[in-house]
Amino acid sequence: MRGLILFLMMVVGTLSMQATDYPYLTFELSDGSKASVSVTPDVALTFNGNTLTIGTKSFTLTNLSKMYFSAQDETVTGISTLQDTDSDEIVAIYDLQGHQVSKDQMHHGIYLIKTNKGTSKVCIK
Amino acid sequence: MHQMKKTLTILIALMLTMAAGAQTLSITTASGTTSYSAADLTSSTPVSFSNGTTMTIGSDNYTIGDITSSAVGDIKDNEVHILYNGTSAAVLMASNVTDYVTATISGAHVTIAQSNTEAVDGDELTYVLSGTTSDGSFTLDGTYKCTVSLNGLTMTNPNGGAINITNSKRIQLSAKKNTTNTLTDGSGSQKACIYSKGQLQLQGNGVLNVAGNYKHAIKSASYIEIKNLTLNITSAVGDGINCEEYLQMKSGTVTISGVGDDGIQCDLGGTTATGETTDHEDEDTGNIYLEGGDLTIHVTADAVKAVKAEGDIRATGTNVTATTSGGGLWDADELKTKSSSCMSADANMLISGGTLLLTSTGAGGKGINADGNFVATGGNLTIKTSGNAVVASSSGTLSVVSSSQQLDRYDSDYKSSPKGIKVDGTITISDDAVISVTTSGAGGEGIESKTSITFNGGQTYVSSSDDGINASYNTTTNGSGDLIVNGGYIYCISSGNDAMDSNGNFYVKGGLVYAIGCGGAEKSLDANTEQQKKLYISGGTLITVGDLESGASITGGTCKYTSSWSKNSWFALYNGGTLEAAFKTPATGSNTGGGGGPWGGGSSSLKLIVYTSSTPTLTSGVTVSGGTDYFGGTLNIGGTVSGGSNVTLSNYTSSGGGGGRW
Predict the structure, then answer these.
(1) Which of A71, B193, B266, B444 makes a 20 to 30 Å CA pair with B630?
(2) Which CA distances in Å does B358 have to B230, B369, B503, B514, B641?
(3) How far does the CA of residue B81 sit from the closest CA of chain A (Å)?
């Protein structure tokens, strides 16, 4: 009985991993930037001319190099460093859920930085 | 050990619920659909793009322009997901079914060819449809049963049907729990907004709204079963639901309105009925089985039916609310005047359960119309008709009459009278059946059989403008026209004719009959003495307002009467000192100044007649408490009475001679 339970637990564990392993489809562009799109629920990929559209996101096909399933959101934009001089001008910082946060609250993830000069997206690694 | 068993049970349950869902990418081209597991398309083995024109997955190279659909999502074995979005659609397919399913996509019009002839990995295929399109459709062909699951689908096809299933096997069409699905069709050549060549099982705990703008809303060339589903048919040019073989409503909530023809029509599929079979296996009867759930139908066109069966209608548990408001129609082919019915059966009408509220307001409208027999053993049936009779000239021009007497000069095919229950075969009411029929229009008969009527039990209330209860016969049925009361409680009042009229013999052998004719020449109980038939009273309890048929045979008890009484006062009827019943009358005796109205009318001899197995006595002005009220508080059985004064009764002797008109 104990052996059977152990075996079933392994099966359940495996099934569980299969079901939740890859909730994102990540697109990598030729400049190295990446964008991940949630694929839960189902979503169509539409090819129209030189454009691939998935959900609300569109990519220029000639700029697209790879596409793969990923376990996490791997979105990376070209902006990855926040200059000290810019930080003095920061008006507000928001996380992707729209919550306003302080600089001290910025951990790993993507944030929107609103400054006097405009709004930028940054990735904290 | 007990804990281990519990753990084992939980693990197995977990396995069953988690079974085999997996992220998948499906690519569809003219060559078919290929599905790739997410585990095979990770960052180490990605899909690669080249020059914006080519996509490579493993060893598969795709010219992007050749891709007709691609989709990604979590899909289980045996599933095919169709994602509608505006004017496009995408197909996501489990990898274990790609060899059996070919998807052709044109805009948002998806055609599936399913080739398996047996279960795939032990199960049938399931198509899950979701999204919104204003110009889309789903067509499915195949030779093996499958499920079509609607998961929040809003689909309009302006140029044809929304769902067209040419697979002739059993199809489960299911609306997923907590989803609302709306299907609308447009002009084309389709038979319905939802058409299935095979057996159609409509189910699921979601909502399905259907609008049929070309013909029927839902059509199956085979049987239809309905379970759990909330189905709203909001419009149809033809029938709301049209099917063959049989229709079975087990549960759910079905509402049908805005249809141009019948609400539900079920026809025989072949030429010979099989009769009901075990579990309806290979059944072809044209029967409609109403076993559970709630069914509401409103139809408005002339001469249509809310529920129409080429076979039987068997109501055993469904709560039915049906209304018809259309008038008559001249059928130039059959040379016959036709009218609407709430329920129409070419064979029998059987009621043993459920609550049925049937209302017909149009000219000639009927509650129930059956060519076969009517049998009620249970359930609660209420029928109200308010239309007048409709008649046709020799050229088929229709007109509505406002007086029952005008009908006498029309042949039967040239008139259609409003009737609560009209049956060509026999009528039998027994056991726990509770029936209430009210007709108010010209020619409005309560309950009519063209063969015979038998009461063995139940409660029957009839208030009518013409004959209340009429047993008749014709050359087609060749029935006896007998009316037989063996048991049950019957209250029957007519404002314009006989209360209970037999065109054959009339037997009162048991039960309690409370009959009120309109007075004058019309009887409370009428038999066809003109054809040497007779009224036989040999048992039960009888209360009548209005005379009995002349020449009645009265045995087994005593019959007495009074001509002086007041209406709306409680009377206690005793049978040799035992309280039999308490009752009120709506009429007043002519000797008590009861002129005017249909009862009394100032004529000479309106009688209140009572019959019991011993010697009846009457007390008027009593106070009644307890007991059970019947027929809207007109009759009380088992109560206690007090006070009142004795009514002087005379012995009733039936004279010879004929009765009133039929």
Answers:
(1) B444
(2) 21, 12, 27, 24, 36
(3) 8
